[in-house]
Each structure stands twice: as C-alpha cells, then as structure tokens.
Design a protein that fits this description.
It is a single chain. The chain is α/β, with parallel strands linked by helices. It has helices at residues 2-31, 44-79, 83-107, 112-135, 137-146, 168-173, 175-182, 193-203, 208-226, 245-256, 265-274, 281-287, 356-361; strands at 163-166, 188-192, 231-235, 259-262, 278-280, 297-301, 304-305, 312-315, 321-324, 334-345, 348-355.
C-alpha cells in the first residue's frame, strides 16, 4: 500500500518535472538565448513528460524499497523491547519534557538564543527522564500493579499482602489449582514472566520426564486462568541483574510486599532468612492431615525395610510414612502398632511406632 502511494507520487512529480523542463527550454529558445538555432518540437513535451515520469518512478521505487526495509527494521527492533521498559522509558521521557516546559519561561528573555537553549534543555531533560524511567522500571511496574507507593519508594497499602506469587515447583505440583478452587487462597495470583520462561524451557526439554512436568505446569496455569474464579496477574517485569529464578522471586515478593507460594524446602528457608512471607503447600497439606498423638494405636501394613536395622516402613492413606521399630519381621502383614513419637517438618510428617505385640510382651 505504502509502496504504491510512493510510486504514484514519484510518477506525478517526474511527469511535472519533465513537462516543466521542456517548456523552460522552449522559452529559452524563443528568447534567442539558447545555443541551438531551431526550436524544440511540440511533441517534445510528451517525451519530456514520459521520461521524467520514468526516471522518477525508478528512483521512487529504490527509495520506497529502502524506506520500507528501514521501517520494518525499526518495527522489529521496537517489538523486541520489553513492554515494561517501553512504558518506563515513555513515562520518563514525558516527565523530562514536561519539566523542560517549566524552564522555558525563564529562557524567553534570551530571544533567539533562548530558543536554541530551550531545545538543548529539552533534549537533556528528555534523555535524563528516559534513563531514570528505565532505572525505576521495577517500581513503576509495581505502581501499575498496586496503585500506590510507600515512603521507601515501594508499594504499600491495602491488599498488598494479597499478592500470592507462584514459583515453578508449586505450579508443576498442581495442588495449587485445587486450593484456589476451594477459595482458601485470597487476593491476586501473581505469575512472573521469568517463571513462565522457566516452565517453557522445561516443557521443551529433551528429557521425557522434564517435558511432561513442564507441560503439566502449563496446563495447571491454563486451568487457573480459564476455569477458576481467581484474579491472575502476569508480571512482565524482570530483574536482569539477578540470574537465579528463586532470587528473583524473593526480590519480587519484597517489591510487591507479597507472599511466595511454594513447596520447595530450600526456597522456603531462603525466604525466611530474607524476611519474606511464605505459603508452603506441604505445610498446608501436613496441617490438614489427621492428628496422631503418641500413645495412640493404629492399624498399618508394613511394606518394606527401613533405613536402620530391624525397622519396617508403612504408610497411612494420606501418604504419611510410619517407621515401625522391629517391623522388619512383619513385612507384608497388617498389624496394630503403638505410636511412640511424631516428627513434623516442612518436608512432611513422619510417625515412629512399634508393634503392639512387642509392647504386650514387655
């Protein structure tokens, strides 16, 4: 479309130029100032008009191809700029130009020199505004997400603790979708773009297990977005100075004053050391398990050896592991055991017991 318009404009300009050159030359001949003795033929106007149009069409075609290629390059270069950087740069540029307008009245008394100085001030303040905007892109993204800034330059206000930031492990785990469905998770579910990139990388892995885990995580996100009645925010910001995804999650939680939702034991500890609130899915699962107290009697089936000599291992229906002292001799049989102690950690719950038969024998 644009190329056709450029060529049409070039053809018209060329025809007009050729026609004008012919009549200029004809006037010179009529005045006797030309070197040739004969006047140009009348048909020359048509010839000059056609030649001018052809020459300008050829030049216009070359210029159109160059201009369109440069325009495409500019569009591709612009499309590669992250949206958060583009918005931050535009905001900074706008602020710098507005500030330069405030300076303009003070420069008017300089006359023409003041106008030149004003252009220089606009360029300088515009550049400074762009640089400041890019440096503050994370805070600007947080302002867009939360609507307010605190005294420290970070967001604050009502509902900031309602931001629940999902990490890769909890998305792949899948239980977060069921928890959201029950309504126990309130507020906005935040899915960072760098977590999505990690999921995509896992889904494209050559390892079959990793590929299936990554695809499961993407399916869980689609379910949360499309099927569940929860607010989901895709956070497009990034922390380029940080390479580790876990460290980026901690930084994002500090910026948004949100909570990290995870089932990663190590990330849980890092968040605690950094003073970041954590919602551990494993802790929630352990909290809703039936309470078993020392001294209670339960019926289990010993299925395998334990790590220590003479131990047997059994499991409750919810997956809780029971270590039975002296249970090795009862592998494959169902028996009644007496709970001796319960160990509760973020990694899970472990129950220690001993056969009730041995207790009666003593």
């Amino acid at each position: 479309m644009w190329k056709k318009l450029i060529l049409a404009f070039a053809g018209v300009c060329g025809a007009w130029t050729g026609y004008s050159l012919y009549h200029t030359a004809e006037t010179e001949f009529a005045a006797g100032t030309a070197r040739f003795s004969d006047r140009l033929p009348v048909e020359g106007s048509i010839l000059f008009t056609v030649l001018g149009a052809i020459i300008f069409l050829i030049a216009g075609n070359l210029c159109a191809q160059w201009a369109i290629s440069q325009l495409r390059r500019a569009v591709m270069a612009g499309s590669r700029i992250p949206m958060n950087e583009m918005a931050a740069g535009a905001a900074g540029l706008t602020g710098g130009l507005l500030l330069s307008l405030l300076v303009y009245p003070a420069l008017k008394w300089l006359g023409a020199g003041g106008d030149l100085l004003q252009v220089a001030v606009m360029l300088c303040l515009g550049y400074v505004g762009v640089r400041i905007g890019l440096e503050k892109k994370t805070e600007l993204a947080a302002l867009w997400a939360t609507g307010r800034f605190g005294q420290s330059g970070e967001p604050e206000g009502r509902g900031l603790e309602e931001h629940k930031i999902l990490d890769t492990s909890v998305i792949i785990d899948g239980r977060i979708a069921d928890i959201c469905k029950t309504g126990f998770i309130e507020g906005t579910i935040v899915i960072p773009e760098f977590v999505l990139e990690e999921l995509q990388h896992i889904a494209d892995s050559s390892d079959l297990l990793k590929r299936n885990r990554g695809r499961r995580g993407l399916d869980i996100l689609n379910k949360i977005q499309k099927e569940l009645d929860v607010k989901v925010l895709i956070y497009e910001g990034d922390f380029e100075e940080i390479s580790e995804v876990d460290s980026k999650l901690v930084k994002l939680a500090k910026v948004l004053h949100g909570k990290v939702v995870t089932n990663d034991f190590n990330l849980n500890k890092v968040c605690e050391l950094q003073g970041v609130s954590v919602l551990n899915i494993n802790d929630l699962a352990n909290a809703v398990k039936p309470v078993v107290l020392p001294g209670e009697e339960i019926i289990v089936q010993v299925i395998k050896d334990g790590k220590e000599h003479g131990q047997g291992v059994a499991y409750l229906d919810d997956g809780t592991m029971i270590v039975v002292e002296g249970g090795r001799d009862f592998i494959g049989s169902t028996m009644e055991v007496l709970v001796t102690s319960v160990l509760q950690t973020s990694a899970g719950r472990m129950i220690f017991a001993k056969p009730k038969l041995l207790e009666k024998a003593q």
